[in-house]
Amino acid sequence: MTAALHLDSLSVVYDDFHALKDVSVSVERGESFGLVGESGSGKSTLLRAVAGLAPISGGTIRIDGEELKGSKRSKVFYRRVQMVFQDPYGSLHPRQTIDRLLLEPLAIHAVTDSDKRIARALDEVGLGNGFRFRYPHQLSGGQRQRVAIARALIVQPSILLLDEPTSALDASVQAEVLNLLEQIRRDRKLTFVMVSHDLGVITHMCERLAVMRNGAVVERLSSQQLVKGAVQEDYTKNLMIASKGFVKG
To answer: Which CATH class is domain 5-91+159-168+175-242?
Structure first.
C-alpha cells in the first residue's frame, strides 16, 4: 500500500546550518506518527518542509505516492494536507471573527455551502455556533486551539501536521484537546504526523515514532517499545529520563 507521506533523504539548510540531514520517514494512511527530540532537533522543521514553509535543499517528499516539486505548494496540496501550529494565540488573526477565520480557507478553495461547513466544523470541535461571531481575544487558549483545528479540518484534508498542538495549554486543557484530536482521527480516518517534546503525549496519540537529534533520525520504534523501555540509543534513554514521570519503573 502506498504511504500517505514518504520522505526520502530530506535535507533543509539555512546558510551553513543543516536543520535536516537526509531524513527518511514513511507514514501509512490512517496512522498517527510521532516525532520526538530535544529543542532544535529538527522536528518542527520537518513539518514545515512538508507544508512548504521551509526551503528544501535535497531529497524528496511524496504524498500518496505523488512527488512534490520544490517548496511551493498548490491549492490541491492544501486540500489534502493541513497544519495546526503550536501557539493558539499567534495562529489566529486577532481582528477577524471566528466566522471570518473559517470562511477564508473555504473562499480560497472555492468551496460552496460555507454556512453549513462552518457550523459543522465548530460543532465537531465542541464549540458550537455561539462562538461564530466572537473574536480570538474572547476565547480561552483551549478554545482558540479548537478553532485552529476547525480551520484545518474545514477543507476536509486527509493528513494533519500537528506541531506541539497542546504545549501552550494548561495540563487539564491539553487532555481535552488531545482526546478531541484522537476522536476526529478515528471519525475521519485521518493521518497524523505529530511533533511533541512530551513522550507521554506521543505514546498516547501515536503508534510509531522517530527520535530526532541534530536534524537527523537516530532511532525508529513503536510506542509500545518506548513504554517498555525497549530502546537502543542512549539519547532516547536520556529523553525518557528527562520526560518527568515517564521512566519505566
So the answer is: alpha beta
